[in-house]
Design goal:
Elements lengths: L2 H7 L20 E2 L1 H11 L7 E7 L1 E2 L11 E2 L4 H18 L7 E9 L7 H14 L1 E12 L6 H9 L2 E9 L3 H6 L6 H13 L4 E8 L6 H13 L4 E6 L21 H17 L3 E3 L3 E3 L4 H7 L4 E3 L2 E3 L6 E4 L4 E4 L2 E5 L3 H11 L3 E6 L2 H16 L1 E3 H7 L4 H14 L4 E4 L2 E4 L7 H21 L1
Parallel strand pairs: 2-5, 2-14, 3-4, 5-6, 6-7, 7-8, 8-9
Antiparallel strand pairs: 1-17, 9-11, 10-11, 12-13, 15-16, 16-17, 18-20, 19-20
Helix pairs in contact: 3-4, 3-11, 8-9, 12-15
The structure holds S-adenosylmethionine (SAM) and iron/sulfur cluster (SF4).
S-adenosylmethionine binds next to β7 and β8.
């Protein structure tokens, strides 16, 4: 049976499964867990372990139709100014809770559009972050950049304040596709921003682009790839477009009949993978590519690549503190998500100093599944020896799990002396396998609670 037929038989083209940027996925977070545990989890952060910091700026000057991120449109900076004041309060309150001052290993500004801040507002925000945390050795600062909203003086300021990585939103370069997703952005505009960044010493550039967009064809994606490569990125993230108009109302501007079907989407991702590998990019996880000397590619080769809310990372920190509306924090004992709308977020910060409202308390069984899911999403395989080290389960437990997976997915996974691996060419099934494990082990978990 050919690859497409095999994957079809396993349900790849019909399945709706999480992207597993966390386990459990954020839609399973429980009401009030965040608010209940956030303060305590922050207090318990050990000073000897550096943390990662994520800051969410949920505002955009334009609202692209395809975008599934929860963002708020604004023409002026006035709602942003009040929001930044509350962010600064949240950063101060949270950073003073641990017994000792924390070291920050990573700082990432995401959104929305962090670059819509004026230089003065950005300076104020960064002053607050750098006042709150010491810098760990090897500290890295990265920012998500919409090239149509990236003033040269702001880029200069970010570089002066230590930004060394940037993630640039491209999505597609084809004009017909850009019109159909409500996001016009010329190639020259994107190239200019890349040049400015490199001129300021920001040499690590990631480009986000999408397959499965309206009017996109395998041929048009191939042409977009030719142009994306001219931007000379070190990393690429090629996401499958998620069409969820019931969640993101503005996507109803995109008629579903203009979208390529699941098998064409698969052809698109295959084409991109082949083309990028042929010119020297290494495929990482389910949707990232990097040049061999890029730190993410090195981390992947050395088994250090991790999965997090931004996709893939070489960030080794156990704890991540998320600031801002809807930001998610990860602690050793669980996840905590801030109130999602900017108004609810601001009200919480003004009342309590912190804004956690949802979250998840990780039990031992969850930790086990999180380890399995992260391994599959990062390495397309399971290495039992590493799981035995990090969980309380025995090799015998994992042996039966591996047997079960090899039976269930007989045509796409193979056993391996250390566990199993997904056969080359069938990596697209990684999320399906995670979803299978999730369903199977979550049921066991429910049974054990019922007894
Ligand atoms: C949070 S957005 C920020 C991007 C930045 N504001 C810009 O416009 O360049 C980060 C990335 O999420 C991805 N994204 C947004 N909506 C998506 C969707 N519906 N399906 C898949 N990826 C999506 C896009 O690739 C985008 O670059
Ligand atoms: S893609 Fe970027 S600019 Fe467009 S709506 Fe989403 S976050 Fe805003």
């Amino acid at each position: 049976m050919d690859k497409i037929s095999t994957l079809r038989r396993y349900g790849l083209f019909d399945a709706k499964v999480p992207r597993y940027t966390s386990y459990p996925p954020a839609n399973r977070f429980e009401q009030d867990v965040g608010a209940r545990h956030q303060r305590n989890w922050l207090e318990q952060l050990p000073a000897h372990d550096p943390v990662s910091v994520y800051i969410h700026i949920p505002f955009c000057r334009r609202l692209c139709w395809f975008c599934a991120c929860r963002t708020q449109g604004t023409k002026t900076l006035s709602p942003v100014e009040g929001y930044i004041e509350d962010l600064i309060t949240e950063i101060k309150v949270a950073s003073e809770l641990p017994r000792e001052r924390l070291k920050m290993a990573r700082l990432h500004l995401g959104g929305g559009t962090p670059t819509l801040l004026s230089p003065a507002l950005m300076d104020r925000l960064l002053d607050a972050v750098f006042d709150a945390f010491d810098l760990a050795e090897g500290f890295e600062f990265s920012v998500e950049i919409d090239p149509t909203e990236a003033a040269p003086d702001l880029l200069e300021l970010l570089a002066k304040r230590g930004m060394r990585r940037a993630s640039i939103g491209v999505q597609d370069i084809n004009l017909k596709v850009q019109k159909a997703i409500g996001r016009l952005q010329s190639f020259e505009q994107t190239q200019e921003v890349c040049d400015i960044l490199r001129g300021h010493g920001v040499h690590s550039l990631n480009v986000d682009f999408l397959y499965g967009l309206p009017h996109q064809t395998v041929q048009s994606l191939s042409e977009t790839l030719d142009q994306v490569v001219l931007l000379k990125p070190n990393r690429l993230a090629l996401y499958g477009y998620a069409h969820v108009p019931h969640v993101s109302k503005r996507q109803s501007m995109i008629p579903s009949e203009h979208l390529p079907g699941p098998e064409t989407r698969f052809d698109m991702s295959e084409l991109a993978r082949e083309r990028l590998c042929a010119i020297g990019f290494e495929p990482l996880g389910i949707d990232h590519f990097a040049l061999p000397d890029d730190s993410l590619a090195c981390a992947a080769r050395e088994g250090r690549m991790r999965r997090n809310f931004q996709g893939y990372t070489d960030d080794p920190c156990e704890s991540l503190i998320g600031f801002g509306a809807s930001a998610i924090s990860r602690f050793r004992r669980g996840y905590c998500q801030n109130a999602v709308s900017t108004s609810a977020y601001r009200q919480r910060v003004q009342t309590y100093g912190l804004a956690g409202h949802k979250g998840y308390y990780m039990r031992e069984e969850d930790r086990l599944l999180a380890g399995l899911v992260e391994q599959i999403m990062c390495t397309h395989g399971i290495d039992v020896s590493r799981l035995v080290e990090s969980t309380e389960q025995s090799e015998i437990y994992f042996a039966s799990l591996i047997d079960e997976l090899c039976r269930q997915f007989a045509d796409i996974v193979d056993p391996h002396p250390l566990g199993l691996f997904i056969r080359p060419g069938y990596e697209a099934a990684a999320r399906l396998i995670c979803a299978h494990l999730d369903a199977a082990l979550s049921v066991q978990h429910t049974h054990s609670l019922a007894i």
